[in-house]
Amino acid sequence: MVLQFFIHPAIAIFVVSMTILTFLLKARKKKFFKAHYVSGIITVSLAAVAIIIAFWATRPVGFDYFPDPNPIHLMVAIPAASSLFIQGTMGITMLLYRRSRAKVYMMHRRFARLVEIIVPIQGILGHMVLYYLYVRY
Q1: Within a 13 Å sphere around the CA of 117, how many CA atoms are in the beta-carbon half?
Q2: What per-residue string of b and e applies to 44-64 under the rule 16 or more CB within 10 Å gives b?
Q3: 125 φ, ψ to 5°?
Q4: Residue 89 and residue 31: Cα distance in Å, rounded?
Q5: % of the chain at pLDDT higher than 90
Q6: Rg (CA), the chain
Q7: What confidence tens digit (pLDDT) does each residue in 18-44 have?
Q8: pTM of the prediction?
Q9: DSSP string, 6-38
Q10: 123 within 8 A of 81, measured Cβ to Cβ
Q11: pLDDT for 3 beyond 80
């Protein structure tokens, strides 16, 4: 196996873990505001890096090289990445405007539940792709 196929999963595991951590920092009774913002910025930044590396890793061999779960992983990747970036944008907007926008605050809270469902599903599908790569080759 080529090393570039393992860089994306390593970063993606960290992105899923940081997404869960970011959610838990504000979902509990005691809220950690600064840590929530720092972990959110790290999560969104690493998600962008993981997407760029995914395209870089699949470019030399093509998508036909990958097993059957890969198209499902790619179909879930678009809403997962989009929801993560939208969530990050709403969070930065609230940080800059000091929660002066009540609708953005409520949307950010509700949208966090969607992000917490779809990003781990994306991680599970990614692990399925990695598992089938091991079994196949």
Answers
A1: 5
A2: bebbebbbebbeebbeeeeee
A3: -65, -35
A4: 20
A5: 1
A6: 16
A7: 888 888 888 777 778 788 889 889 988
A8: 0.77
A9: HHHHHHHHHHHHHHHHHHHHHHSSS--HHHHHH
A10: no
A11: no
